[in-house]
Design a protein that fits this description.
Elements: H1 3-9, H2 11-18, H3 40-56, E1 65-68, E2 75-80, H4 90-98, H5 103-107, E3 110-113, H6 117-129, E4 134-137, H7 143-153, E5 158-160, H8 165-178, E6 182-184, H9 190-206, E7 214-218, H10 223-235, E8 240-246, H11 251-258, H12 286-294, E9 297-301, H13 303-317, H14 323-334, E10 345-350, H15 357-364
Parallel strand pairs: 2-10, 3-4, 3-6, 4-5, 7-8, 7-10, 8-9
Antiparallel strand pairs: 1-2
Helix pairs in contact: 3-9, 3-10, 4-6, 4-9, 6-7, 9-10, 10-12, 11-12, 13-14, 13-15
């Protein structure tokens, strides 16, 4: 490895190289931000992601990074977590948490809350870790995901409660607490976020030394963007991280801007094709503070723009993605900074592909 490259990237590169990942060609240090590397939470997320990748990589797919240079003036890459086992990125975080449970924790009731994807991931992780569990789902979960979960675990393993994710999460926590068990958050846990951060490690490896200028990530509770941003900012501090939210339910974005977690009634929370990112977040969610320094920009997307993102992936690659993934694609399409200049490199995280046929037809029609 080139000594000059090592010097520019600093200690983070040595950590990555030691774990067997590719070295990046860095921009001159004067053009890159460096403050991220000094934040304890950021360092924790990055180092945890490296550790968790070694733990889970034999149980997950290394998903494709599709490339297109026919759109706009820059190069854009799409990380296809829609092709991940269980159909979304959530398996990474679920495995990271379940495989770290103590023997004592495994004896109690393990619960989680989900809009579908996290539940599917937990079911697979529970099987891998040889534990049982109950999934609490909000009333607005898609029928497709609900049926898929029931087919996997039966009626007894699924509980529909509350109107949105915040209410189902509260119920799952309460059930675990009463039984002396363990609640697995979809996002409010650094181990979960670090599992999602392994996507960032894979992307940088798959880019083969190419340095990304922008990364577009769909945002719900914030576990995905926090984990990936922790890795990206450690290794490519100058890369711009952009959070993409549905305009109909932008809780985390608005909470970050308010400097506190907004509760129901304080932010718009309406139906959206990006159901996987909809709803409120925990009052104590660490992702609010983390995103306040890890996320550079935010973009809100209308329902028409989200549908346009889904249509783009089907038209360009014949890939079937869900609305939450369309939200990230739409963010890239809307953001002119992501398409400027022949040498611009953008990455879009396509977070999932679990979508009902009828809904998919509506979005691409």
């Amino acid at each position: 490895m080139d000594n000059g490259t090592n010097a520019n990237l600093g200690p983070a590169l040595f950590l990555l190289a030691a774990a067997g990942y590719v070295a990046l060609r860095s921009r001159p240090a004067s053009t890159r931000k460096t403050t991220y590397n000094k934040n304890p939470l950021h360092c924790t997320l990055y180092s945890k992601s490296v550790t968790q990748h070694q733990l889970i990589k034999r149980f997950i797919r290394k998903t494709p990074l599709l490339h297109s240079k026919e759109v706009g003036n820059g190069n854009v890459f799409f990380k296809m977590e829609s092709r991940q086992l269980t159909g979304s990125f959530k398996l990474r975080g679920a495995l990271s948490k379940v495989l770290m449970l103590s023997e004592e924790e495994k004896k109690g009731l393990i619960t989680t809350a989900s809009t579908g994807n996290h539940g599917l991931a937990c079911m697979r992780a529970f099987a891998q870790g040889k534990v049982g569990g109950v999934i609490c789902l909000p009333g607005n979960v898609s029928q497709y995901k609900l049926n898929k979960l029931k087919a996997l675990v039966g009626e007894g393993g699924v509980k529909v409660v509350g109107g949105d994710t915040a209410e189902s999460e509260a119920a799952a926590r309460e059930d675990a607490g009463k039984a002396g068990g363990c609640y697995i958050s979809p996002y409010n846990d650094t181990t979960i976020a670090a599992g999602q951060g392994t996507i960032g490690l894979e992307v940088l490896e798959q880019l083969g030394g190419v340095v990304p200028d922008n990364v577009y990530i769909p945002v719900g509770g914030g576990g995905l963007i926090t984990g990936i941003a922790g890795v990206i900012k450690a290794l490519v501090p100058g890369c711009r991280v952009v959070g993409c939210s549905p305009a109909n339910s932008p809780c985390l974005e608005m909470s970050v801007k308010a400097g506190r977690v907004l509760r129901e009634g304080e932010f718009k929370n309406e139906n959206t094709y990006s159901s996987g990112t909809a709803g409120g977040i925990d009052d104590d969610s660490f992702t609010v503070e983390a995103c306040s320094f890890l996320v550079d920009d935010w973009i809100q997307l209308s329902e028409e723009e989200i549908k346009g993102g889904v249509r783009f992936m089907f038209g360009e690659f014949k890939e079937v993605v869900e609305g939450a993934a369309g939200c990230g694609v739409a963010g890239w399409k809307k953001d002119e900074r992501g398409k400027g200049g022949e040498r611009g490199v953008s990455v879009v995280v396509c977070c999932g592909g679990n979508v009902e046929a009828k809904e998919f037809a509506e979005m691409i029609g």
